[in-house]
Amino acid sequence: MKCFQLKSIILAIVISLCSFGVKAQYFDKYYGVAAVGSMPLSNREFINRPSVRGIKLLYRELLNEKLSAGFDFTYSGYNDYTEPRVYPTGNGAVFTDYFGYVDQYAITMSGEYLFTPDKKIIPYAGFGGGASYSSLRLYYNVYQNSERKWSGIIRPYGGAIFRFGNKTSWGAFTTLSLDHSFVKAPDFDYKGLSSLNLQVGLVYLNW
Amino acid sequence: MKRLLFLLLPFLVGCGAEPDVNDLTQNMLVQTSFLDNIDFSKYTSYAIPPDTLGYVSNASEDTLVVGRYAADVVSKISFRMSKGGYTLTNKKNEPDLGISAYVLDNQGFYQSVSYPNYMFGYPGYGYSGFYNYGFGGFYGYPLVQNFSYQTGTLVIEIIDLKNLTPDKKYQVVWVARIGDLYNSPDPLSKVLVAVDQAFDQSPYLKKK
Hints:
The complex is a heterodimer. Chain A is mostly beta strands.
């Protein structure tokens, strides 16, 4: 059994190395769509639960052999539940449980460096910046507070494109990004949203 | 077409979701406030209208709630006051405190009650005159500001009958607001739990 596992691992490594060695056709632009999973890294008192409710659309054009630039549209929806507790106020207290919701939409301009654009596996690293629109909502019993805010967002990221073959335009891609939007919502004691995002999706390479 | 699909996808993934009402209404919201500089241990007795709640509505002419709901709520309030060391008496015996409990129904005007130093009265029920509210707003979340229409709130007020203000007005020294009365499952047992919670989160409300 152990021998079989070892052989499988060696085979996988060999296939991966061969894939790196395969030359692929050049492309001049690409489109992508991905599912986004997000882990909030800030304001975790309000929302601490990871989200799998997200999507990303991307468009890139190659500026030269190794540099591309374009646009991203991302959506991430977070929600969490906080058990009932007493919140002291200036001259009293409030007892409630609550549901927190954050929907964040972002449009960014992004540029990335493609390490091996002629290979079947194309690692890349990039940086994006743009605008985000955040909708923050707090539900408690039948009552609700909400705020909607525009803010800036920055996004360093890295990942890889995996081409399905030499003769197909389709591939998969995965990206790990660290997003930080500068949204501030004083009523929610909300000062910026940082999140770690994992994106997995499909890419269409156009040449 | 492919590009159009890409553009539409974000709107197909359930943006703007909301919690389920059944989950939301498992616990009633309980908000309590007290007037600054009040020593609750100096009071001894209280009075409360028996088995009756006031009713203030902009959709009905009724002014009272009677029956089991009102009796159980009043009984719970009396139990907690007695537990705090106060003695139940009637109005003729000149109690130190008066308790006014009423249901606010479908009341848009209630929205501003949590603003500092707001004054208002409820003609037709309870004690005469208006009460000087001295409690402030909230700090941090949750913020209780958006009391909307179509809701029911139980308000319990403790009024100082012994010490009038310089302009001869009664003062509300403690208030609890509990809601929503209508959308919660099993509303009677929930409101009784909420009344308990109102007193639990007001540990200063007791005679020494």
